[in-house]
Description:
Rossmann fold; two-stranded parallel ribbon; binds nicotinamide-adenine-dinucleotide; globular; single chain
Amino acid sequence: xxxxxxxxxxxxGFLGSHLCERLLAEGATVICMDNFLTGSPVNVxxxxxxxxFRVIECDLTGYVHVPGxxxxxxxxxxxxxxxxxxxxxxxxxxxxxxxxxxALGLAREKGARFVLASTSEVYGDPLEHPQRETYWGxxxxxxxxxxxxxxxxxxxxxxxxxRQSHGVDTAIVRIFNTYGPRMxxxxxxxxxxxxxxxxxxxxITVTGDGSQxxxxxxxDDTVQGVLTLADSDFEGPVNIGNPxxxxxxxxxxxxxxxxxxxxxxxxxxxxxxxxxxxRPDTSLAxxxxxxxxxxxxxxxxxxxxxxxxxxxxxxxxxxx
Length: 320
Ligand code: NAD
């Protein structure tokens, strides 16, 4: 890594905690800023006490101050699962708008590179498949998911304006569904839900008829893509995700098989504006960053299932 002193906003969340861990392993000093809305200090407790790691509890939508030099700001603060952002709609809009404004202001003040964690959700329910960065999306601005989608679209626009008007060295990464250890079992996303249900032998709840597709990327691959972008001069936007596409029903059956579970599949209502298909075109990431995902779905899911098994077992053990 070129950067020596890195701020990770949302650093106590799922992706943020993996970023902090990797950055520390690569020799950087890491300042994790988080208000613990959907993340937790538990995600970074194994890093606390290391000399190059610091956690600052702070709400990015308020006053933001970091003493000393900063080379890189990775702006990852935002609720990301539909359950979370539907529970916190205004906080999600605020962190995408005001939070991004403040994170950009920090990068500008410090002369740091800035990377915005955007999302495949900017493509909405896409009419182009697979999705390339040139596609502008199909988003309902007043639908329930808009609090997330539109906040991220605004954040992309603000990031671009800071680059053009203030000369901040910015980049935008559009992350597609990422999974792995440290997702919360009840965060409402498909993989933690299916794994939890399979491990407990409960019915696996697939929404709609399960024919809608997602493309899932293991967290280590996403982290590698984000850090390669951060280390480059490329501004993006660039898709980071795994193009191997699965229907939700296939995903549920695969998880059930890999977990050695005999849970039945149960079909439940599909959420409003749930996208029918989702698959990244990653040719730009390959051409500009030399990045492609390395971890196949079976390997990634097995690692995730074994982490969840341990977590769920620990939680169900009576306190001594
Ligand atoms: P997460 O909920 O685990 O992490 C988000 C973190 O941001 C949490 O620790 C939360 O407490 C923190 N946060 C929220 N509001 C804040 C505020 N106002 N001030 C300070 N901290 C705040 O979610 P995640 O899956 O790790 O996602 C991280 C980022 O990556 C998000 O910006 C999300 O939009 C983006 N992303 C994630 C995925 C994915 O599949 N995980 C896909 C696309 C984009």
